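Lab notebook, page 48
Experiment: co-folding of the full assembly
Goal: obtain a model of how the components sit together before planning crosslinking
Operator: M.T.
Materials (sequences as entered):
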Amino acid sequence: MITMEHVCKSYKIAKRNAGFGEAVKALFHREYETIHALNDVSFTIQDQEMVGYIGPNGAGKSSTIKILSGILTPDRGTVLVDGRIPYKNRTRHVKEIGVVFGQRSQLWWDVPVIDSFELLKDIYSISEPLYRQSLEELTELLDLAELLRSPARQLSLGQRMRCEIAASLLHRPRILFLDEPTIGLDAVSKLAVRDFILKQNKTHGTTVILTTHDMQDIEALASRIILIGKGKILMDGTLDDIRRGGGSIDETVAELYRTYDI
Amino acid sequence: MKKYLSFFRLRFIMGLQYRGAALAGISTQFAWGFMEIMIFRAFYRADPSSFPMSFSATVSYLWLQQAFLALFAVWMMENEIFDSIINGDIAYELCRPADLYSMLFSRSIASRLSRAVLRCFPILIVAVFLPQPYGISAPASPRHFILFLITLILGLLMTVSLCGLVYILAFFTISPAGLRLMFNSAADFFAGALIPLPFFPEKMREIMELLPFASLQNVPLRIYGGSMSSYEMQKAIFLQIFWLVVTTFAGKILCHLAQRRMIVQGG
Amino acid sequence: MRNIGSKIYSSIRLYLHYVSINIRCVMQYKTSFFLTAFGQFLVSFTTFLSVFFMFQRFSSVEGFTYSEVLLCFAVMLMEFSLAEMFARGFDQFSGMVRRGEFDRVLVRPQNEIIQVLGSKFELTRFGRMLQAVVMFVYGILKSGIDWNFSKILTVIFMLIGGTTVFTALFLIYAAFCFFTLESLEFMNIFTDGAREFGRYPVGIYGEKMLLFATFFVPYALIQYYPLLYILGRRTERIYMFLPLLACGFLIPALLFWKFGVRHYKSSGS
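Observation: model returned without errors.
Model output:
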């Protein structure tokens, strides 16, 4: 179970104005601006839930994911993931989670994918039998058999994403964070990835938290949607809750963004 | 021309905005110059009669070297350009209405100048106020100062032209990193960046002074302190112009070949 | 106790695993690798030449002869290259932070330092290492020192202490990346600068520099003082062990790194 209560997080960033005069001025005096990435955010996610976490860029999505995965310490509020405080005792926490950053790769570019997997086995101290078992299962479900022997640089984006997901699941985490997992993928790969995530949730009861801009992802995967904007939770409910009338999912979400002015 | 001016302006503003970087760079160069001076002081104390230049001319040489580092340091090549050559993005430049070589040339001048302008004044100002013999002295004469400025510009053009050759050679080699490492250490050595050329043995110095590397910082920094005779100065300036013409010409030809290769191979 | 032992064992194993992957990656581009390594081999050679040619003109500096300075340079270069071989991965750390790769490090259940060093291990540094070995052998042979057990031991201590101090400096450099990505250039004076200026015994830079190099960053402890012992200018045993004392410099470096990680986790950038 994941609970966040009254979590706040703000950053201070230096203002940089355009123009020559401004640049000279900034040399001597610098102005700072405080950005409230998260402003009193609270929610609870039960085990085995699949949650879509949506909102425009800069709304606070990635700050939330970072806090839950132990990379970021909140300013205020309490966070508990299966009874652990993520940002305290980092190593124990991250053993139980898997993270896929859609825009960044964790595979080694120039060696066969299987070599990256072997390294992850050491990093997560996965026992030999469990590793064999996970690998076999993931290879079958994600159709990796042909890919494992090729270096990551030779794979297409879709093939690579399948390997990325497998890499994040080798240690059988109880919670999986997916940050834009389908970005840039072709239609076939998108379907394969969605299908796999569904299965993973069904068979292993993995809790899945997904951020995405692709509303079809949400429609296919998430039974629950959390909408965040300007650091606040604006809506928390099912897809049906927000869908009024017969508009498409994209229209519905665009309407929501307009309603909340985000 | 206008677009390179705006590129210069952009670089300069960027340099101003990253004031931390500028400050760190200035203090590093300051510390570096100070340490170099301490080395030469120790050798001077050991045996003043073996010193080939006056101590104050050496000190001026070292301070000017730090102040104008960005103009002459061959290792300050732009990673952006290297990366675009390695990954083939440079091909986009071919679609633009500017000549590739002129682009490389003007861009390098702009980025070196903008860096140097930002950094030279604080270093020079502090160096002027340092107690003698550790501070920078006035130029040997007004004539020397004018020649210093002229050769400074020639030296900058020469640096850009030489580095241009390295950029372009990166098209033809499989290991731009290795090429760069070797070029950097050789150029630094022969240019007098490690120790000024007069400190080398006579025979060796004579040969080194003929090489293109001697036309970078060696000429202006030595003219400033007045450690060159009129004849030597004339010869050095002539060599600077000669090498500038040769390297630029070679660069243009190589660049032309590289473009042909790029088009044939499809980038 | 046994727990700690197995932890260290598995850490070393993981590091070696990283190293082996890095080697396999590099071997995909063999020619490029050998050329870069050759470049690395040549790089510090010009530093040696600058010492050589200065001594063509001058017979000594602050009472140190060519062969004595050469020994100093050789040992320093060896210390630096050893540290660089294992710990220069920190050099690319600013890029890791900028690109957000450090987030990936943090979501893995292993020590951050091992992950960073392992993933950025660079085999081409071997080129410089090779050059250091050549210089080291040459420096030792040329030194004309009457080697005995305690002098040999002193050299070994110097290598241990020096490698540790430079590793600590690389670590501090990396830790600075958590606070600023733009002001890092200043750290160069302490790493590459120390290698360059360390070619001469610290003593030649004057009293104040010696004090700085004794109490602030312990360069003198791994270079100047033990050198005096080896050259027979000092006979007190304490000079032998000063390089080991210098290893203590790793402690503030580690604390600073921890502090940096904490800062990163609270600022998120």
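Interpretation: The mean pLDDT of chain C is 91.
Next step: discuss with group before ordering constructs.
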